[in-house]
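Hi everyone, sorry if this is the wrong subforum. Our group has a chain we'd like a structural model of before ordering constructs, and none of us has done structure prediction before. Sequence below.
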Amino acid sequence: MGESSALSRRRRLLSGLTAGSVLVAGVALWTSAYVKSPAQAAADAGPPAPDVLTAPVERRVLSDTVVTRGSVSASQTVDIIPSGIAVEGGLKPVVTKVMVRSGQTFPGGRVLVEVSGRPVFALRGSLPVYRDLKPGAHGDDVRQLQLALKDLGHSTGADSLGTFGPGTKRAVVALYEKIGYEPVTTDNSATDSARTEVKRARRELDRLEEKRADPGDVRYAREDLADAESALAKAEAVSGPMVPASEVVFLSGFPARVDSLNSKVGDPVGEKIATVSAGKLVIKGSLSLQDKGLVHPGQKAEVLSEVTGDELTGTVATVADAPTAPDAGTDAQEAGQTPEGYAVTVTPRSALPVRLAGQDVRLTVEAASSGRKVLVVPVSAISAGADSHTTVTVVDRSGARRRIEVRPGTSGDGYTMVTPVGGERLTAGDRVVVGVQHGAGAAQ
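Answer:
Right subforum, don't worry. Here is the predicted structure as tokens:
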């Protein structure tokens, strides 16, 4: 009896364990089929369906712009580099006075600096100095000097324009007296010799006339005196006060401006003492090779000074054909240039305020414009097929898509002008495909 009961309990336990194993196995099977880890769920899901990105077709005035930096400066800039200065004892010339400061404006006839006791002053004129202006000289540079002297109230008398005669000599003397210096004079040795010869010839004529010499001898003596007087007149015509090239700088207009001073009293004269400028203010900038092909003379330009807030308009005046690097030692960014850039000049439509002189500004050049409102799409909406046809894909409200062949036109600011071809219709407000975004909820 007891053995039978024990055997029965063992059979019930074995049956229970078997049923439990089956149940656990079933749960495990269900779990593996219907419950997944996050990693497995992501792996099984695969990539989401792609959604298109669209943008509206617009009607607008299309323009292409080029933005660069520029600096405001006068139309004429001149470096003062005194050369050919003669100093007693063979010493090197030095700066002995500085009469202006950087940023200062000055009138014509003003002494700017003094070098080894000699003045360097400015006069009105457009031709650069290339020689000493001496009595007897002829040319356009002499004419320029005469007009500049007259501007300052110093008459050149009866001298014809372009000829350095007696009247111009007197005007030069008057100019130097006004600025407080003695004028430099030409070498007078030839004049002194000619005067001595005149005295000799006159005495010889007087001697012959007193002793009632042969009329032939008297006639020859008179001819000798006339020749001597003619030689003296010629010598005097080319002697006297002069304007050395080292003492004058010609500027196109006044008041002019001192852009920079590179020397102080006691400094030896180097390559450049100062830089001055004159004329109307213009904007000078630089273009990259890519932008250079888009900018041409006559195009409209917007000028903005971030410092003063001034906004002005201008016109592209010149674009260089060859690249130029900024001067050595110059900060290219401050100068409104980039190394190996193409120089561009913009002329303002109205006079720039003097406060902008020397400032860095932003230039925005309208390189191209449709001139009127046209149908445009983003550049990314246009595609070209193997058949060379250019198309855009329009998506309607239901999501249906259709391709429309278009003819592209002016591009700018990320948009391209398009014209439907083949009788197709495309209007402002239509949405065109510009890209594909993976994931739901693409912006449209």
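For your construct planning: The chain has four domains: 52-62+371-438, 65-71+279-369, 82-186+240-261, 189-237. Residues 241 and 312 are 48 Å apart (CA to CA).
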